[in-house]
Specification:
alpha+beta, 2,3-Dihydroxybiphenyl 1,2-Dioxygenase, domain 1, eight-stranded mixed beta sheet
Length: 310
């Protein structure tokens, strides 16, 4: 069994309009844009990162805004809901705030003893705010959401799968423990890591298969402390039969990827070096940062990217 995984690192999704995406996460949800860079494989497209003050692993939602791409079709084989943690007692604020902002899909309920508010992102993304203890996490308040309501980071994520058993076995191998079930949803929790530590598997045997597009999660990343830990995880996964990519330098972390039995793309990302490697904390996310190989083409790249609000 793998013992190096510390919970979630980040979740990466796709969007249509870059400015709509930026406004939603910074103004509506009050997160900080901690990095403005480009898709390393498609530099004509932004890669935008939103999180807490420094982009702590377990707090960062990232997006590829691919212009006018069609919306994804929801179904099995995907991360159906990305869950953010908020302070206890704050959902009444969020319900009123999101309603005033015109956010759709608002519905409140409970799951596994936690009160939650479900809502849609601007491209039909599936989100929930879950009331939890702060667990030594501090929300970003620079965008006008107060500390007693601000998003603390991720709570976890819910996968929607045709058959959840194989993915459950994988999570167990990755260090997660099967906790409890409610109906067709089974919760897995990892101990001793960061606070973004839950994965829920929802089995929907008769649901259609998802098709990715705007509003779809592209991949979900799990955190390890450093490159040595990442190599141990890679070796263990490959010994078990998974096809894992070589280590890829993403400037702010090192990454490996593999496809899960349920169809979800997993990444294992290092906590090092972090988002302050090329910007001081006070100015994170302001300047366009490019991988070294794209710097000679900066003028052409900037000319093709839409201007973003601060």
């Amino acid at each position: 069994m793998i013992t190096d995984i510390k919970g979630l690192h980040h979740v990466t999704s796709m969007a249509a309009d870059a400015n709509e995406n930026n406004t939603f996460f910074t103004n509506t949800l009050g997160l900080r844009r901690v990095k403005k860079t480009v898709n390393f494989d498609a530099p004509e497209v932004y890669h935008l990162y939103y999180g807490d003050e420094v982009g702590t692993p377990g707090s960062v939602m990232t997006y590829f805004p691919f212009g006018q791409m069609p919306r994804g079709k929801r179904g099995t084989g995907e991360v159906g809901v990305t869950e953010f943690a908020v302070p206890k007692g704050s959902l009444s604020f969020w319900s009123d705030h999101l309603s005033k902002q015109g956010v759709t899909g608002l519905s409140q309920g409970t799951a596994f003893g936690e009160t939650r508010l479900n809502f849609d992102g601007p491209d039909g993304d599936g989100f929930a705010l879950v009331e939890t203890d702060d667990r030594d996490r501090t929300p970003w308040t620079g965008n006008g959401i107060s500390a007693d309501a601000g998003i603390l980071g991720f709570n976890g994520a819910r996968f929607r799968l045709r058959d959840a058993d194989a993915t459950g076995e994988l999570l167990t191998f990755m260090g997660y423990q099967k906790a409890e079930s409610e109906g067709d949803v089974t919760r897995y929790v990892i101990e001793g890591g960061n606070a973004a530590d839950t994965i829920d598997l929802e089995q929907s045997a008769s649901a259609p298969t998802a098709n990715q597009g705007a509003g779809s999660v592209h991949h979900i990343a799990f955190a390890v402390e450093d490159r040595a830990a990442q190599l141990r995880v890679r070796e263990a996964l490959m010994d078990t039969g998974y096809q894992v990519t070589p280590v890829i330098d993403r400037d702010y972390f090192w990454a490996i990827y593999f496809r899960t039995p349920g169809g979800v793309l997993f990444e294992i990302a290092t906590n090092e070096p972090g988002f302050d490697r090329d910007e001081d904390t006070a100015n994170l996310g302001q300047a366009l940062k490019l991988p070294t190989r794209y710097e000679p083409h900066r003028a052409q790249i900037e000319a093709r990217l839409p201007e973003l609000a601060a």
